[in-house]
Amino acid sequence: MEKLKKVQAKCTGVDTRVIQADLCKEAMDMEMYERIRKECAEIEVSMLINNAGVLYNGYFKDQTAEQIREQVIVNTYPYVLLTRALLPKMVSSNKKACIVNLSSSASF
What we know:
This protein has helices at 2-10, 30-39, 65-92; strands at residues 47-50, 98-101. The protein is mainly alpha-helical.
């Protein structure tokens, strides 16, 4: 959260929100996405940056099932479900908007 607050401070002239969510433990919890949607209800959302990703170093054969599960969950579900949660608001504003998907295991 500390790093995100520092980035937010650098975003001058733009209304930004930092919303904390555990995208591994809560990735399949639809209530988390609803909470995020509600936290954004009062602001104009013109950009969604999905930058969450997990990758464990080493050979795949040496990774635990839990590590593999975590990578698959964090690298797939959250960006799709966050987009689903916020896209209707972004489209309804009739203003330009964008969604940027940055991270996945491939980015490492």
